[in-house]
Amino acid sequence: MTDGQQNRRKGQRVDAKLNLEVSIPRGDGSHVPARMETLNISSSGVYFRSDHYIEPMTKLNMVLDLPVDPQQPDATGTAHCEGIVVRVLPESVGSDAAPYEVAVFFTQIDEPGLKHLQQHINMLLAVG
User: Fold this and answer.
1) Can you spell out the DSSP letters for 32-98?
2) DSSP run (H or E) holding 112
3) Is the terminal CB of the chain with fewer CB neighbours within 10 Å at N or C?
């Protein structure tokens, strides 16, 4: 990654394997719900692996499951997010079954969810 790409980021990105529910739009206007796992997150976006090819510039509705208390692993909160797909690797639909890696820039996060997300990122940075 170039310095220019890193400098454009508003939030520090951290590796995190979190459950992510994504509503994938279809050509007919319907949506397909899909469960994903994040690869990394920041307060401005999420990077995840998908079995579905998702076109760049696609608007996604997402729900991110976040731990809310490191002392209670089962205590989770959610962040309801909207975002735009900014990158997909590989860049086109392939004939093999390899998963796609999808980068999404958040355009909206509900206020309680943003608080949980920032707390989780800070916790991950603290344990380094």
Assistant:
1) EEEEEEEEEEETTEEEEEESS---TT-EEEEEEEEES-TT-TT-EEEEEEEEEEEEEESSS--SS-P
2) helix 111-127
3) C
Domains identified in the chain and CATH numbers: 3-127 (2.40.10.220)
CB distance 70 to 84 below 8 Å: no
Instruction: Provide the whole-model pTM.
Output: 0.85
In tens, the pLDDT along 64-111 reads 999 877 777 778 889 999 999 999 998 888 756 568 999 999 999 999
pLDDT digits (tens, 9 = 90+) for 33-53: 999 999 999 999 999 999 888
First vs last Cα of the chain: how many Å apart? 21
